[in-house]
Specification:
- With about 100 residues, the chain is mainly α.
- The protein has one domain.
- Helix 1 packs across helix 4.
- The longest helix has 28 residues.
- It starts with a helix and ends with a helix.
């Protein structure tokens, strides 16, 4: 159940990317995968690489996924912006 809570929190935060310019590496699908993987990875790290069961899952379990989802989204956005700038400088012949 903990894995489900982490995944749902990652997906919930991914929905807010509609308010950002689409500069994510891989587009909206890349942002989705980054939020999902980041949320699950940080959730696993915080729980010692074990998944909380049904009776060990609380609201705090879902909240543990927030930093991971935000880190994943931030990294993918940064990489997309970096690649966009590199492509623009190549197009203009600046590099």
């Amino acid at each position: 159940m903990g894995l489900l809570a982490w995944a749902m929190m990652g997906i919930a935060l991914w929905h807010f990317t509609i308010w950002l310019p689409d500069r994510h590496w891989g587009g909206i699908v890349g942002a989705f995968l980054a939020a999902l993987c980041g949320a699950i990875l940080v959730g696993l790290i915080l729980n010692g690489f074990s998944i909380p069961g049904r009776h060990a899952t609380h609201l705090s379990t879902a909240l543990e996924a927030i930093p991971g989802a935000l880190i994943g989204l931030g990294l993918v956005y940064w990489e997309g912006t970096r690649r966009e700038r590199a492509a623009e400088s190549d197009r203009l012949g600046l590099s």
